[in-house]
Amino acid sequence: MEIQNSIFNYATLLKQVKARVALAQKKAIYSANEEMLFMYWDIGKLLCESQKQIGWGNNALEQLANDLKNDYPKVKGFSPRNCRCMIQFHKEYNQELTIWQPVVAKLEMSNCVLPIKQLSWSHNITLIQRVKDLKARYWYMIQCLKSGWSRNFLIEAINQDYYHTYGALANNFDSTLPEIQAKQVKETLKDPYIFDMLTFTDEYNERDVELGLVKHIEKFLLEMLCKPLHKSSNKPC
Questions:
Q1: pTM of this prediction?
Q2: DSSP reduced 3-state for 95
Q3: How high is the pLDDT of residue 126?
């Protein structure tokens, strides 16, 4: 009975520690993502202002991207294409945003805050380039956060015009998806660009956690059973 209680207490402790680690990882990821968005918006602003003052063209942008790549060889976010996306990001939101403040989309029913900082760079750029209507963009943003849509699934949803198909059922959206799709969209937001700001390991799936927990409990139980034997014998257990 005492051993069973010890195993239960250990299992509870292990779950609590893992939950705390997972919470810290999520906070670090979202903090890094937010800072990356700030950086890209600022760079987009610098590029826009410089372009107006100097009037440089694509060749200058290519040169800038190459120089940045030489200075930061491990950073993937300074390609010419991504630099153009930074300019687009700044231009899209510069009227209402310093991105430190929320963008308010003036929709039909109410003022809705666009959750820009909560989405990955890839999600944001996809929405800017493919969804011009702010009301529709807001709806897609909420679905990404609510259901954990990947960028590929978001693109497919936009191509299939989910907004007009399911928009009226937004509060009950999960139930409108086929079961196999619902499983596909339940994933944590990941973005390849975030590795420029933070390196993190993939979260274990539920089965991995269970297997790890079983191994720890087995090890703990073995140690508990070996202790009485050590008292009566010098032989290793």
A1: 0.65
A2: coil
A3: 97
